Amino acid sequence: MSGTAVTTLAQAMSPAESRLAHRASRHLKEKIIESILLLAALVSVFTTLGIVYILVSESVVFFRHVPLWDFLTDTQWTPLFDDAHFGIMVLLSGTLVSSGVALAVAIPLGTVIAVFLSEFASPRLREVVKPMLELLSGVPTIVYGYFALLFVTPLLQKFLPELPGFNLLSAGIVMGIMIIPTVSSIAEDAMRAVPMNLREGSYAMGATRFQTATRVVVPAAISGIMAAYILGISRAVGETMILAVAAGMQPNLTWNPMEPAATITAFIVQVALGDLPHGSVGYQTIFAAGLTLMLMTLLFNILGYWLRKRYREQY
Amino acid sequence: MPRQDTAELRALIARHKRWDVIFGVVGLLCLAVGLLTFVALFVDMLIDGYARLTPDFFTNFPSRRAGQAGILSAWVGTTMVMIVTAAVAVPLGVAAGIYLEEYAPKNWVTDVIEINISNLAGVPSIVYGLLALGLFVYQFGLGQSVATAGLTLALLILPVVIVATREAIRAIPGAIREAAYALGATQWQVVQGHILPYSTGGILTGVIIGMARAIGETAPIITVGALTFIAFLPPSPVGTEFPFVSFEWLKSPFTVMPIQIFNWTSRPDPAFQANAAAAGFILVFMTLAMNGLAIWLRYRIRRNIKW
Lengths: 315, 307
Hints:
heterodimer; A: mainly alpha; MetI-like fold; 14 helices; B: mainly alpha; 2 domains; 11 helices; 74% helix; flat
């Protein structure tokens, strides 16, 4: 609205009336601001669409060269050789074994820590310990990779002399420690959401803390605890740098954690470090591998989300 | 009740209570495993890299000779990428958070946005790298530049900023909004004059945590195709000639701290691994300091604000 319009309006009306008058400019400005904010919120939708578009469009070209059946069943992964084989099983085995080791560390430790912090620890201890645990997941993964390769592996080699320098075991263990806070904090939230009167009922029947924790609180919070495990799995599957550094980048179809092997993520890193021409089959391979990874984590995330929704509705 | 039964009951209770103690000890041990690993990591990096932590280390370019190599190009690159990341992620994330808390109607568009945000938080970081490779590097033609890396990391931490913004806004009581509306403020005036100032602390906490995550991210930047050996600096953003400010640095090739560490770690020579340890120590120290700052801020906000 122009300045002269305001003054003529003001002359025609009393001061109070002019201030309360409907001003088009004020509403227009509000609408514009709201649209800008909506656009910002939509960026997340565009990001998802972008990810799906890029992964699918490049993978479609890839699967024109490589039949889907070969991709799923071939037992060799040599995409950059003349005799190219594209068996995702090889990379999948590395991903599954390392994630398995990580979960074998993170699930017991994370669960015990969650029960301890939720049912046993004093509020003071909890206030101090929780942020310290969070720091574990804040350490850059490349630093964990260094730690796995040059600290944990030599340490393990003292007990297991035949362990090679690159192996899935030490990478998996370090990865497990990294995801402890993810597992423990979500599991603890689930346990603390259990209503107090369930605990009080249990104590009134003469149960001890330990009995209350294991027979009342944990069963009541079980779907939230499972959600915590599933989100832990999804983090382990998507983890990259620890494996790229400490597990070697040799594709190896194995179920033995004592061997070196490449994972889906490590393969992507390896290809990206090289100099692949844009548009070659090798270049498209990483998008097919990325699509596999994305589908796996999406599945886990949906499962975890669904489980968490379920336990929230219970009380 | 006969005395004998009472004694038996007491013994039973004592037996069960023993498990409380045992579990308490096990719980503390598990906590200790986590925390000791962290201490071991920190101390290991310090011991391995201590000899390399000299002023020269910060002012030297990477070199083929481990003893002369430094992290100049890495920390300059990290700083530049972080500037781009913050400049993109903070306005976008805060705007999205404000929209979802203050403006969004309850309809399917809002639902889609919310599901998207929680889903994006679970996408592995390397997938963002693939997105950036396909979209920013080739389709937008940004190449392997500071701008590409900054945008990639901005998308990566966007969910963190949005969630922090929403939590901070949600903590503001409705009475404040109602009071402002009662005085005739428009929605934007309420946001600008009340919601934003009161939630700044909470938003800042989220931004710092997001940046601490971005600073250590390696996989997406490697996927974009960043070079691992950079012995020059991007062009300076400030020049001596008119117009004094240049944005050429956005298009420049770069390296960042985590990539430099990756490069040094993957060499078999222990001298380079000492460099990796020193650079890793600096990186851990930086993320620790940022996380510590965020925790302290959160603590202060919780203590000082009493609505």
